[in-house]
Design brief:
Elements lengths: L2 H30 L4 H22 L12 H21 L4 H8 L2 H13 L5 H18 L11 H18 L7 H19 L10 H25 L4 H4 L5 H13 L6 H23 L12 E2 L6 E2 L2
Length: 310
């Protein structure tokens, strides 16, 4: 697929995936009122993995599970499991709006990492955008003030792990089905959750909590499928800024479900982060495109049927 068409498809998938993940965060926060983070990660991951494995078996594609052993797939799944644990722990006390807003520095971290580790070159304006993004984070986190809570640093740690995860995702071979990457992600998250049961006391599940976890499992699958597909064959630094769609959903869910609205300083921080991300996006989209020679698309084996890779 031509690079511009692949990136356009990736942008749409990222907007959809970010919105679905906002719903997933809401289900997690609802469940946190009854059970600890490790139990959410374990039960939700087990449900999601069983659903996906059953689907593979039903489609006669069970043999595709062998790709779970791919080292990049395992590395991505491990990073995602750590992200999930940190983020769920954070939203136990933070609003999902503030936590999600901090995650919007991911494209800025990705851009900085591309410069430091991959030799990319960016202009002064882009570096200003990076600095502005982190300024926005400080407005939300409020270090040194009486409102500071160290838990707010957890989403920032998630942002760095997300950047690493996105680079790994873009380098997973085209022969690995997206569905298998999602299964590996759910499985590693489940194992991390069960390991957490050794340090956190678990509670019995009531009907409402079980329903929250089912909703979390479904949105987890959908969110991962959409975002993994978004990065396949695309430029991560171009796709990442469109995570901002999740902020709008998170603010709305925080207000309607949890009656949590960001304060004025946090709203200012959110605005600065989004402005920096949007500027970054605009610079990438307006940069002159270099025509590339057509390349024969690779063939990807999907859980459903063979399809062309981006």
């Amino acid at each position: 697929m031509h690079a511009s068409l692949a990136n356009r498809r990736g942008i749409l998938l990222m907007i959809a995936g970010s919105s679905v993940f906002a719903s997933n965060d809401a289900f997690s926060k609802l469940a946190l009122a009854h059970i600890p983070p490790s139990e959410i990660l374990a039960v939700r991951g087990a449900m999601a993995a069983l659903m996906l494995v059953a689907y593979l078996a039903w489609k006669g594609q069970f043999s595709a599970l062998r790709y779970c052993a791919d080292k990049r797939v395992m590395l991505r799944a491990s990073a995602e499991a750590c992200i999930a644990m940190l983020f769920i722990t954070a939203i136990a006390t933070m609003s999902i709006a503030d936590a999600t807003a901090i995650l919007q520095v991911v494209p800025l971290v990705t851009m900085a990492a591309a410069v430091m580790f991959f030799g990319a070159r960016i202009g002064r304006g882009m570096w200003v955008a990076v600095a502005a993004g982190f300024l926005g984070v400080t407005l939300i986190v409020k270090p040194g003030s009486s409102a500071f809570d160290a838990v707010a640093l957890l989403p920032l740690g998630c942002a760095f792990l997300c950047s690493f995860r996105d680079f790994v995702t873009g380098r997973i071979g085209g022969h690995v089905p997206t569905l298998v990457v999602t299964i590996a992600t759910a499985g590693i998250g489940m194992m991390l959750g069960f390991a957490g049961s050794t340090v956190e006391p678990w509670a019995a599940l009531d009907l409402w909590t079980f329903g929250y976890l089912v909703g979390g499992s479904v949105t987890l699958i959908a969110g991962h499928m959409l975002t993994i597909a978004a990065f396949r064959g695309t430029d991560p630094s171009t796709i990442s800024p469109f995570r901002y769609a999740g902020v709008v959903c998170s603010v709305a869910l925080s207000a309607t479900l949890f009656h949590q609205m960001p304060d004025l300083v946090s709203i200012g921080g959110i605005a600065v982060i989004l402005a920096a991300a949007l500027y970054t996006m605009h610079q990438h989209m307006s940069a002159p495109k270099v025509a590339a020679a057509p390349v024969k698309p690779a063939v990807v084996v999907s859980a459903e049927e063979p399809h062309k890779a981006a």
